Amino acid sequence: MAAERLFFALWPTAEVRDTLAAEVRALPGGAGRPHHPDDLHLTLVFVGGVAGDIRPCIEAAGDGAAAGSFQLRLDEAGYWHRPRIRWCRPSVAPSELLTLVDRLQAAMRRCGLEPEARPFRPHVTLARKAAPLRSRPLSPPVTWDVDSFVLAASGSDTPPRYRMLRRWPLAG
Predict the structure, then answer these.
(1) Kind and range of the H or E element at 58?
(2) How far apart (Å, rounded) are the C-alpha atoms in residues 40 and 73?
(3) 81 belongs to the catalytic site
(4) Complete domains list, the chain, with CATH
(5) Order of strands across the sheet with 162-169?
(6) Which of 35, 36, 41, 81 is flagged as catalytic?
(7) Is 123 part of the annotated catalytic residue set?
(8) pLDDT, tens digit, for every residue of 107-151?
């Protein structure tokens, strides 16, 4: 069996997902390949392809990463040229979000996995292979009450591409 490509993520509620999907449709210019609404998420830590025997350690990392719930305010839309990705993100990352990411990264190290070297840039990918978009405020911003995080896996090549494996609540 092939190794699964795993990642920890924030998974939006249906309401937030619908709002983000509407935002994709409202962006000017060529939207490229929009993400399926069920695939919209904010990656916390990309784990990558792992053998099944390390999965219990990864799940234990989720068990030990408890943090507080928080409100995420996605208030900026923009574009990364090299991967040709349109995204939305918070202009200010809540401290609870950064704490959760730090805890998950530390736990991955205890599992013998090294987190990505790139700095964490919280964002939701809206579309790939898209035309350039000048950074701009989202008006109105998308407000997301974050009360859980998930371990997800890459699925098929057809949308939706990702599947949730497990969910952890965040303390209220």
Answers:
(1) helix 55-63
(2) 15
(3) no
(4) 4-169 (3.90.1140.10)
(5) 42-50, 4-10, 148-154, 162-169
(6) 41
(7) yes
(8) 999 999 988 888 999 999 999 898 888 899 988 999 999 999 999
